[in-house]
Amino acid sequence: MTWTTRPRSKFGDLAAIDAGEGPLVVLLHGVGLRAEAWGGQIEALVAAGYRVVCPDMLGHGESAFAEPNRVESYVAPITSLLQEPAVLIGHSMGALIAAHIAASGNRYVKGVAALNAIYKRSDAARQSVLSRAQALDAQRSNDASVTLHRWFADDISAERDACAQWLEAVNPRAYKAAYTVFAESDGPTEKQLAKITCPAMFLTGADEPNSTPAMSQQMASLAPKGRAEFIPDAAHMMPMTHAAEVNATLLPFVQECLT
């Protein structure tokens, strides 16, 4: 699969890929990436009869940067997108944003899928991610090699190359801001999860060391209509590296929520 740049539409401060016609599915990417990270899902969803909107996170891709400093700063512009019934699908920090919106009781959210979502990190994991956030340089591009190794180990692939380009191109101030918000969050709270009354899927890779299967199971147990699913042999970048398997899990869920 190629990860070529796609045209954007404007939604306030956000630039987004807007493809297809039908019930709405909104895809939210993670820190340092851009809307094209969902390239493995866009065509599958469009072919299944959905309109797919994939916004660039604030300060990423072609979206404006407005000095966001908390999760709610990223939630607000996504909420503005929701003017009709929709399923929210988020990856990593995108999953955090999606869960916050679903927990708010937004009447348009008919289902939420949180991919590779974090929940109550261990003390060691929390300190590690906070240290990474503090080490980021807000003035110049950061070395992507450590992140790429964490995501892909030593594997060479088109997915790794695409992520390398996106990480090197992202606004360093926006990257540090988003990573700091992500690092300082511990995922949705128990109270928030209890307020997600729509169907909620918590999907992660069986080999994911940071957004672990145990985390997905815990979140699913706290959401009234929650379920946990796992992609075998997959880790953090599974929407890209295991697109077919992810799609096979997501498509029936989306259909369930929007019919």
From TrEMBL:
Keywords: Hydrolase, Oxidoreductase, Peroxidase. It comes from the Bacteria. GO terms for molecular function: bromide peroxidase activity; hydrolase activity. SUPFAM superfamilies: alpha/beta-Hydrolases. Its EC number is 1.11.1.18. InterPro entries: AB_hydrolase_1, AB_hydrolase_fold, AB_hydrolase_sf. This is Putative non-heme bromoperoxidase BpoC. It comes from Ruegeria denitrificans. The gene is bpoC.
